[in-house]
Design a protein that fits this description.
The protein contains 7 helices and 10 strands. It is an alpha/beta fold. It is elongated, with a radius of gyration of 29 Å. It starts with a helix and ends in a 21-residue tail after the last helix.
């Protein structure tokens, strides 16, 4: 084995594991289990080229190698981005029966963070939820994991290059303020709430790649003085030990019934204004009085 390449792979995966809060020393090459290899969704095939990275289809092919053939070396397989719950479940089922299970370490696949529930992310389809369930550190600080399924709505068209598109970061930030607020900051009395954006600012500091990533969520401002709580929050994205993006969101929370009334009024006003601009009413003018008949001679 190329020692220098092995060390580079080890450092790359060590940073990735640190990003998801896992101790590398308990699962990595230093425990003589094998070479660390990251596994990503098939849409990140370009990212996998020339690195210690496999796409999930390549991993499935590896698991199908007949018993009479041996793998070149043991591997520690690390789940990256692009994988859905069904992908993980099917790979683990296949790994349980492969002839090479003794040299493939899937221990990290059993500890993948759970994706946030629909009630927290406000997404109907599981693959469109980009975050884990939030974890409370203190009353103003929370953590979440980035969990991108390559079948999500923002990757449905195509994947260009090796890094995530910026809108994935914005959507993950949006989902994080929904999830944290719903889980920890609102009464759990069955009331349905509506969230209104007041402001949004995103700063991209580095490319984000399909490796594990963590979100730090901090409440900067909170105003509960009125009927509708208002928040300003900082959401920092960390990957491989570096901050990759920072998003500042301002939002207001209202009961669903209240915003529906306001929304209906504003929607009707918008339609009326559009009609008035599109089809302006002709200006009204004073009617011209009828001409007086000419006087006849002799009258």
């Amino acid at each position: 084995m190329n020692t220098r390449a092995f060390a580079a792979d080890r450092d790359f995966v060590a940073s990735s594991l640190d990003a998801q809060g896992t101790s590398f020393h308990t699962v990595g090459p230093q425990s003589a289990k094998g070479r660390p290899v990251l596994v990503v969704g098939d849409k990140f095939r370009e990212f996998s080229t020339g690195k210690a990275v496999l796409t999930i289809s390549q991993l499935r092919g590896l698991l199908d190698i007949p018993a009479g053939l041996t793998l070149c070396e043991p591997m520690i397989l690390i789940p990256g981005q692009g994988l859905g719950e069904q992908d993980i479940a099917s790979v683990l089922a296949q790994a349980a029966t492969t002839a090479h299970r003794d040299c493939l370490d899937f221990s990290l696949w059993h500890g993948v963070p759970k994706r946030a529930e629909r009630a927290l992310s406000h997404k109907h389809r599981t693959e469109n939820t980009l975050i884990s369930a939030p974890r409370r550190i203190d009353e103003a600080f929370y953590e979440l994991d980035l969990l991108v399924d390559e079948n999500c709505e923002l990757m449905g068209d195509h994947q260009t290059g090796q890094h995530f598109q910026g809108m994935l970061v914005v959507e993950a930030a949006r989902q994080s303020f929904l999830a944290v607020t719903e889980a920890f900051l609102l009464p759990q009395d069955g009331t349905k709430y509506y969230f209104v954006f007041n402001s949004l600012a995103a700063e991209y500091k580095r490319f984000m790649f399909p490796i594990p990533a963590r979100l730090e969520y901090r409440i900067r401002e909170r105003d509960d003085s009125g009927n509708n709580p208002r928040f300003v929050v900082d959401i920092l994205f960390h990957q491989a030990g570096q901050e990759t993006a920072a998003v500042i969101c301002g939002f207001t929370v209202m009961p669903d019934w209240r915003i529906r009334k306001v929304e209906q009024t504003l929607a009707q006003q918008a339609v009326d204004r559009h009609f008035s601009v599109l089809l302006p009413t002709p200006p009204t003018e004073d009617p011209i009085p009828p001409a007086m008949p000419a006087a006849r001679i002799g009258e």
